[in-house]
Design brief:
CATH superfamily of the largest domain: Winged helix-like DNA-binding domain superfamily/Winged helix DNA-binding domain
Strand content: 15-25%
Radius of gyration: 22 Å
Number of helices: 17
Low-confidence stretches: none
Shape: globular
Distance between the termini: 24 Å
Number of strands: 14
Helix content: 40-55%
CATH architecture of the largest domain: Orthogonal Bundle
Mean pLDDT: 91
Largest sheet: 6 strands, mixed
Structural class: alpha/beta
Number of domains: 2
CATH class of the largest domain: Mainly Alpha
Strand order of the largest sheet: 9-10-11-12-14-13
């Protein structure tokens, strides 16, 4: 069992809000984390994939009213969007009786339906927590490269060997495409969406080129946007925005696209072991995406991530606007000897960030000069998480 660092956050939010929504891709560990929380207080667990549990909620108000003294955990809550209206009434009734917090823990794959329904019905009554797959702060210190290769889905990371890990990820992708996504409503051919997802993996951590993707799929730009929105909503792909503050520079306006789990990206590309990964053309960009996702997930609440790039070539891989800490500029290098290029220094002059880091594949921290610190991924992630 791997301890999830998000467990304390869930417990804290349950002490502050009547309802907490724990959102994330399937198999990221939401149910396991909920079970850990349930062990600490009187709880009731309902899985809406189970016909038995769904039948219990044929009259949800009557059934749930009988368990108001417990934390009610409802898994796969997006399957019954009408339930949110009932929960609002139960929450308000509990508030009038003096129970203002810790009534419901809702688990769901992040879909627009879930966010829209809960946002309309439970405004002011619910806190949202995104649970990503495992990150470097939750695995042994010597397992960073393994995590990069296999990704953070627990069953993939904990597989007994790389071959079994790859088989798990291939089946995960197939199940998402053939069963899970159709259940959420969109009617997209599984093979078409797989090709699109694979194309994004080939362009890992590069600028979105919607026209090129549209040509490759023989569809129009609106269809590409719809496919991308779907994968972003499901927390499978990240759309990293460009730096938005106005400057006198001509800024790149297209977002960067990242397949959020590196192991899924590698499975889409047929990369199954360390040697294949290090010899693949996407290795450097895959490392950049892996580091970017790790640091964004480790950063405090309300941190605004972006990247900076000008038409003249000034560039910083990751910008983090951190509440109370100012602007952090982070350049990402996959080697053991980080060397910063002219474009980084020009971008630093443009932005004047409060802190500058070069994240590399080693673990030692040391100054590179000119106010830039070379640091390992684990060290910087720990520093960011400590601010939360």
């Amino acid at each position: 069992m791997i301890h999830r660092r998000f467990q304390q956050l869930v417990q804290d939010r349950l002490e502050e809000f009547p309802a907490v929504a724990l959102l994330g891709p399937r198999q990221a560990g939401k149910t396991t984390l909920a079970e850990m929380v349930a062990d600490l207080r009187p709880s009731l667990y309902l899985d809406l994939k189970s016909p038995t549990d769904r039948s219990k909620l044929s009259d949800p108000e009557l059934y749930l009213s009988a368990h108001q003294d417990k934390l009610v955990i409802i898994d796969e809550v997006q399957r019954t969007p009408a339930l949110f209206e009932v929960l609002r009434g139960l929450i308000d009734r509990g508030r009038r009786k003096g129970r203002r917090t810790g009534q419901f823990l809702l688990l769901g794959s992040a879909s627009m339906d879930l966010l829209r329904q809960s946002g309309e019905s439970l405004a002011g009554r619910i806190a949202y927590i995104e649970l990503p797959p495992l990150d470097v702060l939750e695995v042994p210190p010597n397992a960073t490269e393994k995590l990069w290769l296999r990704g953070g889905f627990p069953d993939s990371f904990l597989a007994t060997n790389d071959r079994r890990s790859l088989i798990w990820r291939e089946n995960f992708i197939r199940t998402y495409l053939e069963r899970d996504i159709p259940m959420l409503g969109p009617r997209i051919p599984a093979e078409t969406l797989r090709r699109f997802w694979t194309m994004l993996a080939h362009g890992q951590s590069t600028l979105l080129n919607a026209a090129q993707l549209a040509r490759g799929l023989a569809v129009d730009g609106k269809t590409v946007a719809r496919y991308l929105d779907l994968l972003v909503d499901l927390l499978l792909v990240r759309r990293l925005p460009p730096w938005h503050t106005s400057t006198k520079k001509r800024l790149v306006k297209s977002p960067k696209i990242l397949v959020r789990d590196s192991g899924v990206a590698h499975a889409l590309l047929g990369i199954g072991d360390r040697e294949a990964l290090l010899g693949h053309p996407v290795a450097g960009l895959s490392w950049e995406a892996f580091v970017t996702e790790t640091l964004i997930n480790a950063a405090p609440d309300r941190t605004v991530p972006s990247f900076y790039r000008t038409a003249a070539g000034a560039e910083i891989d990751l910008m983090l606007e951190i509440p109370g800490q100012g602007l952090w500029a982070i350049e990402i290098k996959s080697g053991l000897t980080p060397k910063l290029e002219k474009g980084f220094y020009q971008a630093r002059l443009d932005l004047q960030p409060d802190h500058c880091f070069a994240v590399y594949a080693g673990s030692e921290s040391y100054p590179l000069g000119d106010g830039v610190e070379a640091t390992g991924l684990m060290t910087l992630a720990k520093n960011l998480a400590a601010m939360s």
